[in-house]
From TrEMBL:
It comes from the Bacteria. The keyword Transferase applies. This is Glycosyl transferases group 1. Keywords: Transferase. GO terms for molecular function: transferase activity.
Length: 358
């Protein structure tokens, strides 16, 4: 079987949902040939029904693939590509890892994905696919007639085997958050005053750092001092390495809304893989993962973060245990057969559809 994976431009999604799954499947020696590329080769031409209108997709090159995977397709042209591929007998899988029509106002993608309707186009494309792969159970609502599979996010072994953060003995414990406030407009506030309480209780022994864009994080968290801002690392392997090199404790606050209910457990998984003790909100996926210290109220955040600074042996023990769980259950090699199974099911769906239509 030949599978063509066509990717988004978003680095994290490309890495975790396309490039690394392809690598894992190939390294597992499974009976499949996988190619990863940006976009599809198409021929654009005038629409015979509207020759003076914009060009439309008239041909799509599947490059000999039995299955084509479209990652986060969001344009009407991609819907045309899907239909043309299916007409050739090629199975089409849509891969999504976010609820694109549930972004809250204030999120930097809300204008395009919600107000301009781009997210609705993505969901319509997903429902016409032969099969859907997604990162969380809540996203299965977009599966075409129930034909979908959750393939959870996982970590490459090479990342999980880097020197873990808990091997350090820092004089000042760095509590870190990885992210951009613009794409998490309501999440940091879930800690309330908990972060500042912990910093007050451990003054001189702790600091807060943000890997990414801090924006107005000081205001949102009601902090006395601005957090240290560490520039974002675009390369995902470099980003994962930086987590373990710069953070001793990781925080993962999430507001419990429709968008975040569909979010993956990836942030806590990354912290855990790098030996970083984490404190996190009780989101559905964080609860399902079962790693990290659960915090719901400001006093929970304050208590957990304070103990993590004041009791380094406890912090290291918790972090080491979480890392072992990742190594045992949550590596990309553990999900390789799930990806293959989804692609095979898509091919079977298309074959049945072609026989019925013949």
């Amino acid at each position: 079987m030949k599978v063509l994976l066509t990717t988004t431009v978003f680095t994290g999604s490309l890495y975790h949902r396309m490039a690394e799954p392809a690598r894992a499947v190939q390294e597992a020696g499974l009976d499949v040939e996988v190619t990863v590329q940006r976009g599809l080769k198409t021929v654009m031409a005038p629409d015979p029904a509207n020759p003076d209108g914009p060009l439309v997709v008239r041909e799509v090159d599947a490059q000999g693939a039995d299955v084509v995977v479209l990652q986060l397709p969001k344009t009407r042209e991609m819907l045309d590509c899907l239909r043309l591929l299916q007409a050739q007998g090629v199975a089409v899988v849509v891969e999504i890892d976010d609820h694109l029509t549930a972004l809250p106002p204030g999120h930097q993608g809300h204008e395009v994905l919600v107000r301009r309707g781009v997210g609705r186009i993505a969901e319509a494309i997903a429902r016409e696919a032969d099969f859907l792969t997604c990162s969380t159970p809540n996203l299965l609502q977009f599966a075409p007639r129930g034909r979908g599979m959750v393939v959870p996010n996982a970590i490459p072994r090479r990342t999980a085997e880097l020197p873990p953060a808990y091997e350090r003995e820092p004089d000042v414990v760095t509590v870190g958050w990885a992210g951009t406030v613009g794409s998490h407009p309501y999440d940091l506030q879930e800690m309330g005053t908990g972060m500042q309480q912990a910093l007050d209780r451990t003054a001189g022994r702790s600091r807060l750092a943000i890997l990414g864009q801090a924006g107005n994080a000081q205001e949102l968290l009601r902090l006395t001092d601005a957090p240290v801002e560490i520039p974002w690392v675009m390369d995902v392997d470099g980003y994962a390495a930086a987590l373990g090199e710069r953070f001793d404790v990781g925080i993962a606050p999430l507001r419990l809304d429709t968008f975040n209910a569909c979010k993956s457990w990836l942030k806590v998984l990354e912290y855990s893989a790098r030996g970083v003790f984490s404190v996190r909100s009780p989101s559905p996926e964080y609860e399902r993962l079962g790693l990290g210290y659960r915090a719901k109220r400001p006093r929970d955040w304050a208590t957990a973060l304070t103990r993590a600074v004041e009791d380094p042996d406890w912090r290291r023990e918790q972090a080491a245990t979480a890392r072992e769980v990742v190594l045992a259950r949550h590596l990309t090699e553990h999900t390789a057969e799930l990806w293959l199974s989804a692609w095979q099911k898509a091919r079977d769906v298309r074959s049945r559809a072609d026989r019925i239509g013949a």
